[in-house]
Amino acid sequence: METIQKFKEYLEDTKIILITTHQQPDADGIGSQIALTHALQSIGKKVVCVNEEKLTKRHQYLDLNEIIIPYNKYMRSDAPKEFDLFIVVDTNTTDRIGTNMKKLSIKSNRILFIDHHPCPKEVISLHCIDINKCATGEIIGKLIEGLGIAFTKQMALPLYSSILVDSSSFRYPKVSSGTHRLVASLMETGEIRPSWAYNQICGTKKISHIQLLGRVLSTAQTDRDGVIAWITMSEEELKKFKVDQDETNAFINHLLILDHIQIACMFREQGDYVKVSFRSATNIDVGTMAHALGGGGHDHSAATIIKGNLQSVVKRTIFQLTVMMK
How far apart, in whole angstroms, are the C-alpha atoms of residue 143 and residue 30? Predict the structure, then answer.
C-alpha cells in the first residue's frame, strides 16, 4: 500500500510524463514502459515513451503501436521536451539509461524510479522500489490496480511478457501467490495465449541454435560436491553456429534441474573478456557474489565480466565461489 500511495503522490499535479528504461532493455523494462504508458494515458496524463535506442527486432511484438520512440527520432518530433515527471523503469540509476536520456532527465521537475533490483534503503524510501517482487512488471501491474485502472489488452501482453521473462517462467523464489493472481487478471483480458506468447517472448529457433545448445551442454561440469555446475561457450562456437549472444542467455537455466545444485554458472567468451552468468537454485545470494567479482544483479540471477581467457576465468571463478559458500 505504501508504494501505491507514494506513486499517487508523484502523479499529483503531474500532466506531462516521460517514461524510459535502461539501455539494451529486456522484456521487463519494455513491457513495463508500454503498460504504464497505456494506463497513465487512460487517466488523462500526457505520456511520451523514449529510449536511448530503438527496439531490437525480437522485442517489436510488444510495441505494435510503436509507443516507444528512440531518442534521435524523438528529438526531431514535436513531442514535449520538458516534463513534470521523468519515470525510469527496471533500474534505479540514470547511469544506465544512456547519455542522451540522462541529459534529458535534467529537464524534468522530478525523477521517479520504479524497480525491483537491490539498492540502498535511502533510494527505496524515495521511489517505487520493491525488491521482493519478481519483476518490475509485477510492480507496474500492482500500481495500475492501485490506481483503479482496469487492465486492457494493450497492457496485458507487455506485462505478461515482463513477468514471464524476469521470473524465468515462474521459476525464481520471489514468485508469489500475488504474482499468479496478477497473471490471472492479465489473462482475463483475453489477450494472452500462453503458447503463442511464449514463442513470441523466447523466439522460434533455427536448427543451428539447437546444435549449439547441444555443444554447450556437453561441456557441463560440477564441483566435487555437485552443488556448483557450469557450462562454457567460446566465441568460435558462436561464430560457427551463427547464433547471436543474446539468444544463448537461457542456456544456463538447463543446469537448474540438476540434483543438489545450488549455483549454476555460464562462462561465455567475449574477446579478451569472459561474461559469467549466475543463477541460484536455493537461497544463496548470487547477486552479492557477482558484486564481489565486479558485477551485480539479483539474489537469484546475476552476472559479471572478467578479463582473461576462458579456461583461467572458469578455474578462478569456481574457486572463488567455493570459498564464498563456506
Answer: 16
